Protein 1
Amino acid sequence: MAAPDLLAQLRSVVGDDYVIAHPEDLLVYEYDGSVDRSMPRAVVLPASTDEASQVIALAYQAGVPVVGRGSGTGLSGGAITPPDGLQVAFPRMARILKIDTLNRTALVEPGVINLDLDNYARKFGLRYAPDPSSQRACSLGGNVAENAGGPHCLAYGTTTNHVIGMEVILEDGAIVNLGALARETVGYDLRGAFVGSEGTFGIATKILVRLLPLPESVRTFLGIFADIDSACTAVSAIIGHGIIPAALEMIDALSIRAVQNVTDAGYPNDAGAVLLIELEGLHEEVDELSAEVEAALWDTGAADVRIAEADAERERLWVGRKTAFGAFGAIAPNYYLVDGVVPRTRLTHMLRKVSEVSHRYGITIANVFHAGDGNLHPCMLFDAREPGVMDNAMAAAAELMAECAALGGTLSGEHGIGLEKKEFMPLVYTDDDMAAMQKVRNAFAPDNRLNPGKIFPDGSYYHPAPHPARHTAGLYA
Amino acid sequence: MPNPEHPTPPVPTSDTDAGHGFPYGIPFTGSLNDGPGFSGPDAPAEPDLYRCVHCGLCLSACPTYVTTRLEAESPRGRIALMKAVHEGRTGISDRLVSHWELCLQCRACEAVCPSGVPYGRLMEHTRAQVQEHGLQGPELSRLSRIFLRAALPHPRRLHLAAHLIRLYQRSGLQSLIRRSRLLRILPGSLAQMETQMPVMAPRFFTPARQVYPAHGERRITVGLLSGCVMPLMQGDAMRAAVRVLQRNGCDVAVPPAQACCGALNLHAGDLEMGRQMARRNIDAFRAAGVDVIVTASAGCGSSMKEYGDLLRDDPEYAAAAQDFASSTRDITEFLAALPLDPPNAEYPRRVTMQDPCHLAHAQRITDAPRQVLRSIPGLQLTEMAESSLCCGSAGFYSLIQPAMSQQLQRRKIDHALATEPDLIASANPGCIAQLEQGLRSAGAAAQVRHVVEILDDAYQAET
């Protein structure tokens, strides 16, 4: 690209301060929350849809690929930008434009922080339900791109269930509306196709989301178990009773100790596993279900059951869950999160597999995950600076993903495919399936200029088992 | 399934990691510049650096990130730059230093960090490296020489300077100069310093050999840190602290041999001077034979509680420093734990609490000052938005980074005034001065008081 020209043009759009091109400044845009890294050619921070559209059009004309970035908290390398690419970051577009309390919707810019929207909505007796663990930092634009989940998605569904429509910029800078921003949708549900497209179709610049009324009553249970097997049995028992809690989370012994080491979340240090269960609804409903949940916990061998109703107490229990991944930093400097999903009934089997793989590969694996919907998060903890350790971790991950697929599950529950999991896509999709997806992508981005190299396997990352798992490239190196 | 349209060139397959070993995924191609790296015993420690897993949960807590929206002005970004220096991918450059120096060292990131990254320590050690290589920004460098090295460690010089400033402010010379055109002719930074010059207290507070006796039955003997600038700028707050402690059954010693706590030196990266001051305080308070060491300054308390860490490699002082640190209490923490004797008269005021960063984040104390305030009958405590987001004071940050400091000051004042308070309560001299100045600029009637001054006033209202 004629870099100096493009940079000068970009500066004239967003101002000098918001085009970052010095390598020393770009050191902080080469990472997100994942293990992947690559230093972009430049980073631009637009302040409006109009600026973003001009920026993307300029990059398109210069033949430069564009990668969108929210807060850079993603765990699959979604915001990692190739060295010839332009990163367009949205922290400056972070306004809540409108709350409609009658229709229970909010119109937001993509840089709005998930928790900020939820806190704001609560002033009106409403809430934004999807609550990824990184909700204090992650942006709604990123949530839409990755179809983010969170503990409360068990009852309320992931991001796609809460997005009504979007204003989107396509690869050539054109601005289009998908779904409804103001009116009912007719025609194709392109909104549904867009959510979870990981920035490969376009980049959302306005998002209309659904808000839910706050529940009348909320009760949180901490079920304490001596081992992970009995905790799994409890999960089956609760779901078997026909109860769908708002959230049903499992935290294993290693994660409990990691969390307690940094923050006292009130988890017993010697527990083999804890379940965090939340019930929401009308008072009578919660009372009735509470009795059943409590009984199910005791029946399946809980060592203790604690119940929290006051906000402060509930928050304390949740802080542990929501900071668990970060807490692993005290154990090892890097983690690789496998985001596999299995049918709930296969949780016990899958966790045994995780434990077996952990021993065989000699990798520490912590488990803290959405048990209620079978979305595991085996988190491999290692020091990537040790030679060969990444290859080993990826080989272990490959086995786990293959097992999830074999059990009738899938690769990712909520963190996206990005760079890290793209080579595993053939485990769950046939060539024809992948070709169909690629056709959709090509319809929106025929020149493949938006977040190239993501989602679709191209041999540039890791080969899944049964091939000898092998680190084939330094990403975009 | 290969993607023929993929625009990035295929990467050579290799069975080894050669070329992209360290750090993972980034080919090591040498340093971006020829600046110096980290070295020596006070370099940022590798385990501290790699404890950060770049999850990003710190971003929304960081005042400079919230203000600028730039990753380089976030805790995660600043640590990434430290890691890059540590790994030899870049040397220390003016550009990196500018990102590190925009940090207020408020440690809000530390309080929300799920990994427990000791960010404050990392930043102090990074600044020590910057100072060692003479790469401090010009403002910090000048202030370090004049204030940190020449004045702060010498109480007498500090007193003399304060006398001169007070003379300047009260003689009419200040108003004369402010009315003249002189400030407009002076270089920007000097004129800035003039307007930000702290207002000196009408009466200074001076450590004395005497012990202030407990009223009624003695419960405990406390040593009170006098501090450096607080007794000069906020002598009334210091006297209030003594009275409040006496009233609650404490013998109060203020050993004259004590020094400034060293916090400002440590924050600027002057670890050696900080250690000297710490040793002097350890000796002074040990000689005074007190049960507990109390400070009315959150910034000082935070540093004093970290003396153990600071002197852990000093064979002579390591144990004593550990003792000193574990005997230190913020005055609100101390009073709330006593528990204090509540005033018996109504003190009807509307009060909002501004959490000093070094109390809320560094010491994780937010409830104690509120407990003290709630113990006052008739006092109505209201909460402002973002009460623990830095007010922009941060030691002498306001002199080094006036633009950022003033933005944060305005934000804080707006939030505070939105609660329509009679009084804004705080617990740190820097915050109090910053808030006072902000209120003056806003022309607001509300006043700023240390929590113990409010308690003291409530006691005075007793019959």
Protein 2
Amino acid sequence: MKKFTWLVPTIYILFLMLPIYWLLNMSFKTTNEILGVFTLWPQEFTFENYIAIFTDSTWYNGYINSVTYVVINTVISVSAALPAAYAFSRYRFLGDKHLFFWLLTNRMAPPAVFALPFFQLYSAANLFDTPLAVALAHGLFNIPLAVWILEGFMSGVPKELDETAYVDGYSFPRFFVKIFMPTIAAGIGVTAFFCFMFSWVELLLAKTLTSVAAKPIAAIMTRTASTSGYELGLLAAAGALTIIPGAIVIYFVRNHIAKGFALGRV
Amino acid sequence: MSMITLKDIRHSYLPLPVDDIDWALKEMSVEWQDGGAYALLGPSGCGKTTLLNIISGLLQPTEGEVWFGDQNVTDEPADARNIAQVFQFPVVYDTMTVYDNLAFPLRNRGVDEAEVDKRVREIGAMLDLSETLAKRASGLTADGKQKISLGRGLVRENVNVIMFDEPLTVIDPHLKWVLRSKLKELHQRVGATMIYVTHDQTEALTFADQVVVMHDGNVVQVGTPVELFERPQHTFVGHFIGSPGMNVLPCDIDNGKVMFAGQPLQIAGTAGSDVKGRTEIGIRPEFVSFAEDGIPVNIVNSIDVGRFRIVEAHHGDDSIKLLVPEGEGIPADGAHVRFDPAHTRVYIDGWMVGGN
Amino acid sequence: MAVKSNNQKAWLFVLPVVLLVAFNALIPLMTVVNYSVQETFGNNVFFWEGVKWFEDVLHSERFHASLLRQLSFTGIILLIEVPLGVAIALTMPKKGFWVSVCLVLMALPLLIPWNVVGAMWNIFALPEIGLLGRMINGLGIDYNFTQNPTAAWFTTILMDVWHWTSLVVLLAYAGLRSIPDAYFQAAKIDGAGTWAVFRYIQLPKMKRVLTIAILLRFMDSFMIYTEPFVLTGGGPGNTTTFLSIDLVKIALGQFDLGPAAAMSLIYFLIVLLMCWVFYTLMMKNEDQ
């Protein structure tokens, strides 16, 4: 029995890889081959689809737009959440528990509920179709999440650390930047990873808040699929390219993922 | 119940040990008499827990054999050895009641419920847990949880050995001695072999009839508390046991004569004449006293610890500690100390030489 | 854990977060509330309608049907993903090189944009050109998720299992790794078998992470929009039109702002209420 337990994760990973393989397979095929014959691997191997993406500015601008708002969102979420998480982990203050719960409820708000009001709000604020709009909107679910994860990490740091630093004559800002932040560096990394992840994969709000200038890559894909008929090869290539940033980020945090997931109130 | 014998045990956590330092446990053979109360004493990282896990069967030794009585159990898993172990941090099954916790090892072995009930109530009473039997185990305090861990071992008939791996680490100081005397009492009542791992000499010396001192993967001495105090076989034992520890001073041995500070010293036993290696004398602070003549020293420090003062004196670069009873004066300038010959011992490369 | 001290100045630390989230949450929420009690015929002219839209939505069969589909979908994926995720976490290697390999590969689906997930599964499951579609049809089963409701549900659920089981795996794995070795050693000495170890050690110790996993999976599956929309467009017919898809159809497709707003609020309240009930029950259980 025990000998064969490795089969379970292996089969699961195979199951995970199959659709991804199929996407890659399609991306290297010509449109004729995709629609004409069923083949398990490309018979006429082609880079045409990728070349099309890298030579068309609407395509690669889409990537730049996506990465831009994801990075802005991650920076805003983490830097705003740092002092707040510190307050929640160290102090009792009027309404702290209610505030914490209210923040978390925003993680539960269905984006579909907010799509239209967001459109109106950001149009009124003159931010429509800018990466900043998407970055701020994604803060709706990423900021509460960041506060939640960081609070978990900070509560694990003994309060004596703070007190020792004050006794040693550190001012609060200097203590926070020079001592406290390095102590929870792993936590900040994990938080940034989650903000990156949820901002990168979300599309409903990103699509609603952009039209031309700031359109994310994933939205451009949808447009291609619907307007120019069935260019499956191109669609597959674009999809395959959206996996890469995620894969790179996972590779860098692989040793912290499991830990980060287990945080919060665990 | 039976005697436990470790034959030429060696253990390494590495797949291919090469150097001496690769071995967590260096080669050793130890016998544990049936019904004995043993302490396994040594600093953190000396291999105590490794040795314990080899006896319990949680670890397979890289080399050597483990015998329980006349049975070779080296390849037997932990559950087949009929042993009990209490860990450093209390292990209780949180979702179960205290009763179910105690019943767990019996139920796993298919004992019928009437017998389970009888044993659980008996052990519960023995450990003063009768009142809490119906409560959830997770609600108990640390000492209560440690009692449950112990109870899960005692509940089985005829356990070969009960092992304690620093069991008082998380217990409040004022409860430590309560639990310790409980253990002592249980040992007399149950009569099972007990092995108590600790780095605290007080715990070891008060609990055990026989103390096994470990250092760096080696067993350096097995003996009664008195033997460890009076005849440390190794300078490490001298250092580690006693407060303050033994004075270890470099000396010269010339043709069987021990020389320290340019003076010949009388020692217990003989030093032997053919001497190679690092030579030292060991003398406990209890057996050093001020005298009219002897070894000239400068007094650098004196700490009052109640019935004694611990005085630190220097001769050249060597520091000598001595205990001065309350009320006795400490000489000012030109002080001399003398060593009690009956308790002055010679060590070569750390090991004691010449008679006992 | 550190003892907290009273300090009202802590509000200053929390202020940036409160402002950012309030800007995003309160203003749109007020807009929604505003719409939900009014009727409009365009040109920004509004008429007071009171709770009419709420009554309409609560009595509409369309809403009931979407809600029922949503509850079924969430129930099914929780029943599959949670046990499956735990089983995979239990069988994963505990240390060494393969841990990293498993974690990286398993986390991959979590970082793929949601519409790409939908598009990928569309390509994968198409009856003529998709690997999955071909395989199922090859087994002699008539499978076409664009026309057959059962096939559409099967594909949507399989896609969600593919997409999100890893989240449960990672959480459960983290929970398992945090159990001290002594528990397993004690269980071994007590003669406990694999099942007893799972039932009395691993499961209780995973309770907290599993609570988080179930909460996250509940919330996210209840809000699911992009993946099924790209995969099936809510069809065939309305068979895979979940709450969010329905809501967007009403709000942006038909531009019925009043009913859409009322539905949004009811929807949001359902999520909040269920999370609260679930959370309270779990915590109460914990205290006993």
